[in-house]
Amino acid sequence: MADARSFAVAGGGPPQPPPPVARGAVGWARRHLFASPFDALVTLALGLLIAWLVPRAFAWAVVDAVWYAPDGQACRAATGACWAVVAEKHRLILFGTYPYDQQWRGAAVIAIFVALIGLSSIGRIPVRLRLAAWGAGASAGLVLLLGGVFGLSPVGTHLWGGLPLTIVIFVGTVAGGMPLAVLLALGRQSEMPAIRAVSVGIVEVVRGLPLLAVLFVVSLVFPLFVPPELSIDKLVRAILGMIVFFGAYAAEIVRGGLQAIPAGQHEAAKALGLGYRLRMRRVVLPQALALVVPALLNDIIRAFKNTTFVAILGLFDVLGATKVALEDPAWVRHAPEIYVFIFLLYLLFCLAFSRRGMAIERRLAARKR
Predict the structure, then answer these.
(1) Strand partners for 82
(2) Tens-place pLDDT, residues 62-113
(3) Model confidence pLDDT, tens digit, residues 288-334
(4) pLDDT over 80 at 335, yes or no
(5) What is the spatial distance between Cα 163 and Cα 90, in angstroms, rounded to a whole number?
(6) Is the dihedral of CA 164, 168, 171, 173 positive or negative?
(7) How many CB atoms lie within 10 A of CB 249?
C-alpha cells in the first residue's frame, strides 16, 4: 500500500491494466495488414488488384475454358484456356519418346516414386526400413524402364523421357550426391594436407562453374579422354555431372553442420575410446546433419528442379518433352496452358518435399525438447 501511495505521489498514478489485445482474425489483420498507414495502403492496393484479377483468371481457367477438343478447332474460337491440349499431349509430356505401348511401365515408376514419398512421411517406420524401401523402389524402377528381364522388352535409355526420366535423374543425383557431400565435407576438415587440398579443390572449382558447364564437360569433353570401348551412356554421364554439382554445394552445408558441433562432443567420444570412423558415424554426423536439415532440403528441391537442364543434352525430361509437344502446329498457340500444367506438376512435388522437411524439423525439435 505504501508503495502504491508513493507511486501516486510521484505523479505516476496507480498501476493500470495492460491495453486490450485484439485476437482472432481481426487481431491478426491489425498486426500484419494494417499495422501502419503505409501497410494499410499496400493492403488496400493489393486487395483491389486481387479483386480485379481473380474473377478474370477464374473465367479464363474454368468458365470460358475448353476441356475437350480432339482436333483443336473448338479452342480457336474459345475466349478462355484450352485444357484440351493437356489431354491431347499428356502422354508425350509425361513419358516423352518412351514406346507408346510400354508407357504403363513409366506410369508404374511414377506410382512407385509417389508411394515412396508417402512412405517416407510416416515417422513410425524406422529409417533403415525407409532407406531399404527407397533402394528396392529404385531398383524396381530401373528394371521396369530398362526391361530385358521378366518378359519385359528392352528399352534403351535414349528412348527414356518425361517424368520417369526426371525421377531417375533426381533420385540418382540425391542418392549419389549425399555420400559425396559428406566425404567432401569431412575431407575439408581432414588433418591430411593432400586429402584436404583435393576436397577444397573439387568443391571450389565445381561451385565456381554453372551447372550447364558441368553438364557439357561430362557429356562432351569427358568422352574425348575415354577409349571408345569404355564409353559411358549419355544418361549416366548426365547423372554423374548432377551428382558432382549437388555434392559440391551440399558439402558446404554439411561442413557448416560439422563446425556447429561443440568440441566437447569430439572430446567425449575420444574419451569413450571411439575411433575416427565410429566417432563420426555415431556421434558427430547425426548431430551435424540434424542441424542442417532445412538447408539440405533446399538443395534437394533445387536438384529436382535442376533436372530440366538435361534437355540441352538431348534428354527429354518433362520440360524437354513439353517443348517437343509444342512443335505440333495445331496446338502451338496453347503453350501457356501446358506450362501451367508443368508448373502445377513441379509445385506438387516440391510441396511434398517441403512438407516432409518440415515434419523432420518438428520431430527433431521435439527430441531436443
Answers:
(1) 66
(2) 888 888 776 667 777 777 888 888 888 888 889 988 998 999 999 999 999 9
(3) 888 888 889 999 999 999 998 888 888 888 888 888 888 888 788 88
(4) yes
(5) 11
(6) negative
(7) 20
> What is the identity of the amino acid at 80?
G
CA torsion through residues 139, 144, 150, 154, sign: negative
**Residue whose cell numbers read 538431348:** 314
Whats the size of the chain, residue-wise? 369
- Residues whose CB is less than 8 angstroms from the CB of residue 229 and which lie 6 or more positions away in sequence, other chains included: none
Pure H helices in the chain: 2-9, 24-32, 37-58, 73-76, 84-95, 103-120, 127-146, 162-188, 193-207, 211-216, 234-260, 263-271, 276-279, 285-291, 293-306, 318-325, 335-368
Q: Is the pTM of this model over 0.90?
A: no
Grid cell listed for 251: 558439402
Q: Look-up: residue for cell 475448353?
A: 66
Structure-block grid coordinates of residue 250 = 551440399
Which pLDDT score, from 0 to 100, does residue 84 have? 85
> What is the C-alpha separation between 245 and 27, in angstroms, rounded?
47
Kindly compute the dihedral angle of the four CA atoms of residues 7, 10, 11, 17, in this order, to the nearest 10 degrees.
-20
- Domains of the chain in start order, with CATH, are 20-63 (no CATH), 84-368 (1.10.3720.10)
